[in-house]
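so my prof wants the structure for this chain in the tokens format not the other one, which i didnt know existed until like an hour ago. anyway here's the sequence
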Amino acid sequence: MKKLLFSSMLVFCILAAHASSLVSLITTYQADVGALGRLYPNSLSIAYFERFDRLYTDWLKELKKSRLRIA
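here's what i got, hopefully its the right format
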């Protein structure tokens, strides 16, 4: 029983740590999108599309580096 309880607590701690890193990534991404949205208010301009394309490309690289599984 003690082994089961210990194993359950260990799994819970690992999952909680993984979830907090995901929350941190999401918060940073939302801040980046918001900042660019304020910097490029015209969502139909060429500069807007180029900059957001670069943002999305950079974030895809960041997600691959972070080793988080995306389903």
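also thought this was worth mentioning. The helical segments are 2-39, 46-66.
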